[in-house]
Design a protein that fits this description.
Low-confidence stretches: none
Structural class: mainly beta
Largest sheet: 8 strands, mixed
Radius of gyration: 25 Å
Order of helices and strands: EEEEEEEEEHEEEEEEEEEEEEEEEE
Number of domains: 2
Helix content: under 10%
Number of strands: 25
């Protein structure tokens, strides 16, 4: 796999100089590079060793091309808890919501402290490339994270401060490849913005709004007059400055959005009790986890946990939502430093101030094309299950009284059957002999 930074620019006038308006493309498809530094921020195709880990994944914005406007293949949006939304964001508050600075993990790379963001993309297997063309981050201490309107509109002008702009030093696009992490449950890109950009903001009261746009690169080919850039050595990227193999033809392709959503998230290793289960391949479709049937990595579950606390005569209802993915057998989903088994997922449970709290959880499996749910932890295989549990059964080592165990058909485990096609031919048996030899 290629490492380091590889970049190219559209030399529209053929003068060999990067002029204003000539876009620079940073290759994270690993054809020639997998890392980049753009206007002080870092972009990685795979997690660096200093990454925050996998812990609890908290999605805060999904964008998806509606396909019914005058710009098919292009999509954009930002996170907010305000409704209605202004661009092409998912309307569910589970996936598009406000984000506090304190919710974003910090990592140190080459002596510099950064905030870490993650990006998951979805493209067709037959057309797996996608461009990230705009990326802006704003901070705000007002309106409880209720960013609204267009990013150059009145709300942003009055309430928000721009702390990062990918195009701040010139037009830039990051080229991504969905096939590198397809179905694995891993992020497709890791983005690091310096903590210093936020100017010492109070993390507990500062809201972060991330705006992104995809698909503007469209098609890159010989007509774009692309030229390779001589990238310097960069210790933050572990790049020795070699540009061997950097050829413009390596990034030729179609980069428009064509399938599913793009999702930004943050991840934090959470110390606390968790519950978990497994996704398994119900190969014979009988709704049971039989001997020899294997677990499945890269499946997503959305969940909602509710519980009540009481103080005097006041009862408060609490709700926690989130998204988790099953391990591909190479990652640590619990944050305990140990790689978790294939197919395992973990949901961290917020602690309650009440004794022996009763929680209610709803877990929804996100379907995948070509599969049907055969078991979801209860008697109705409908991709969802709801049950109650008590805090006395929660532990920091997996809560076995609540969680699903490997190889067992029980609560919190989900089974799916891989659909297939069969076919045959209907004949007219003219002489009634049961043979197709003569008709």
């Amino acid at each position: 796999m290629a490492t380091g930074q590889s970049s190219y620019w559209k030399d529209l006038d053929g003068d060999g100089e990067i002029d204003a308006g000539e876009i620079i493309y940073y290759d994270l498809t690993t054809e020639t590079g997998d890392r980049a530094e753009i206007n002080g921020a870092l972009f990685f195709a795979t997690a660096p060793t200093t990454s925050s880990g996998t812990g609890l994944i908290n999605a805060f914005v999904r964008v998806q091309d509606g396909g019914n406007d005058d710009s098919p293949g292009y999509e954009d949006g930002y996170n907010t808890s305000f409704r209605p939304l202004s661009y092409e964001e998912n309307t569910s508050p589970t996936f598009t919501k406000s984000l506090l600075l304190s919710d974003i993990p910090e990592v140190t790379i080459d002596g510099v402290v950064y905030y870490e963001f993650r990006l998951d993309i979805n493209q067709l297997n037959s057309s797996n490339l996608l461009s990230l063309d705009e990326l802006q981050i704003f901070k705000s201490a007002t309106s409880a994270g209720l960013a609204q309107g267009e990013i150059d509109g009145a709300w942003f002008t009055s309430n928000a401060s721009l702390v990062y702009d990918m195009d701040g030093a010139g037009d830039a696009s990051v080229l991504l490849d969905y096939s590198l992490q397809a179905g694995s449950g891993k992020s497709d890109m890791f983005f690091y913005v310096p903590k210093s950009n936020f100017g010492g903001a109070d993390e507990s009261t500062t809201y972060v709004t991330l705006y992104s746009a995809f698909g503007e690169a469209d098609v890159l080919d010989s007509s774009d007059q692309l030229a390779a850039i001589d990238d310097p050595a960069n210790s933050k990227l572990m790049d020795d400055g070699s540009d061997a193999g950097d050829t413009p033809t390596a990034i030729y392709g179609t980069y428009t959005a064509n399938d599913g959503f793009e999702e930004w998230s943050v991840s934090k290793v959470v110390d606390g009790p968790y519950i978990g289960g497994y996704k398994f391949n119900d190969a014979n479709g009988n709704g049971a986890w039989d001997l020899g049937e294997v677990a499945l990595g890269g499946w997503q579950f959305d969940y909602t946990i509710t519980w009540e606390t009481k103080q005097g005569n006041v009862t408060t209802l609490h709700t926690e939502t989130g998204t988790v993915k099953t391990s591909d057998g190479t990652i640590d989903v619990t944050g305990d430093g140990v790689v978790d088994p294939l197919g395992f997922y973990a949901i961290f449970v917020p602690p309650s101030t009440d004794n022996n709290e009763t929680y209610t959880i709803t877990i929804n499996e996100v379907p995948q094309s070509g599969w049907i749910n055969t078991y979801d932890g209860d008697a109705t295989p409908d991709y969802t299950t709801t049950f109650m549990f008590q805090s006395k059964d929660l532990t920091t080592t997996g809560s076995p009284n609540i969680s699903g165990a490997l190889g067992m058909t029980e609560q919190m485990n989900f089974g799916n059957f891989d659909l297939f096609d069969i076919s045959g031919t209907k004949y007219l048996d003219a002489n009634g002999d049961g043979s197709t030899g003569s008709r």
